[in-house]
Amino acid sequence: MTTQAALRARFSRPPVGLFAVVMGIAGLSLAWRRASHQLAAPSSVADVLAVVAALLWLTLAVLYVAKAIRFSDVVRAEITDPVRMPFAAAITVALLLVATAFATPAPALATVIWWPAALAHLAITVAVLTSWFGGSHLTLPQVLPTWFIPIVGNLVTPLAGPQIGSRTLSWIAFGVGVAFYLALLPLILGRYILVPQPVPGHLRPVFAILIAPPAVALVAAHSLLPSSTGGWHSWVLLAGAATFAALLLGCAPRVAKAPYGPPWWALSFPLAALTTAVIVMVPHLGAGATALAWVLLTVTSSVVVALAVRSLQDLAAPAAAPAGSALESTA
């Protein structure tokens, strides 16, 4: 390998999809924060996770800016390719989650983070939708749950928006997220049910992303209209998230055969979102709800810790190919 090729292989990292790691850690912070309010869990866990998520986002952002300066062609390919473009939205979704994680311990800081993240994410949503509607010649086998990132990412905006940002902008983002989620869901389900070509093995874990939209929508609706929690919409959304979780459990043997890589982090945020949704619904779920919430919180925390340990091991080991390449491939 030539010196130039070696430099390119080393510094063309990180792939934009690695911001999904921040989503998982920040999402777990939100679950622990909700647990501290409703289950008497220690708030210090949520605080530590929020700080870790923020530092990781900053680290990845600096590395990605350096990558954009040194290898602008690689970044341009990532953010203009209609298949890989949705991963760019993980940057702003992760930042919105970081803002939400700091909403309780540092609301002033959270506000400063929330506004640019919310506005930037709406802009990315428009850019992605414009690309999809612009004759990009996409085919159904290329449709994956990762496409929810720019769309359903808008549902993250209202999680703390009414408290630290703008209720109006939160409602707009909520409307955009729900409308296009309902439009995109049939395509993604159709891809899994009707397309003979299977999802590539290394991308099997991204099926877990299907859990996130209804779970995040439930928590977002609770933030916008707390008094409505427990209404019919809450039960519908919780049932949807639980159904996809059950499907993931049923597919676990196949998912487990996927080689480890960044796509495995697709498990983290959806599980954290489901856990948070269940905690929100604890007062309405009846007997055993608290125990169920603790079980989910324990499982989700264990998954994130396991993924973090494995990722650190891989980071310490020499890699034959740039980390994260599998995450961005839909071939």
Describe the protein's architecture and organization.
This protein has 331 residues and is mainly α. It contains 15 helices and no strands. It is globular. The model is unreliable at 319-331 (pLDDT under 50).
Record the SSE blueprint.
Blueprint: H1 3-11, H2 19-38, H3 43-70, H4 72-80, H5 89-101, H6 107-132, H7 148-152, H8 161-164, H9 167-194, H10 212-224, H11 232-250, H12 252-256, H13 268-285, H14 289-316, H15 325-328
Helix pairs in contact: 2-3, 2-5, 2-13, 2-14, 3-4, 3-5, 5-6, 9-10, 10-11, 10-13, 11-13, 13-14
Short description:
With 331 residues, the chain is an all-alpha fold. It is built from 15 helices and no strands. Helix 10 (212-224) packs across helix 13 (268-285).
List key phrases describing it.
69% helix; mainly alpha
Secondary structure tally: strands: 0
Gyration radius (Cα, Å) is 19 Å
Number of helices: 15
Distance between the termini: 25 Å
Q: State the secondary-structure class.
A: mainly alpha
Round the mean pLDDT to the nearest integer and report it: 89
**What composes the largest sheet?**
none
Basic shape: globular
Provide the succession of SSEs.
HHHHHHHHHHHHHHH
Uncertain spans: 319-331
β-sheet strand percentage: under 5%
Helix content: 55-70%
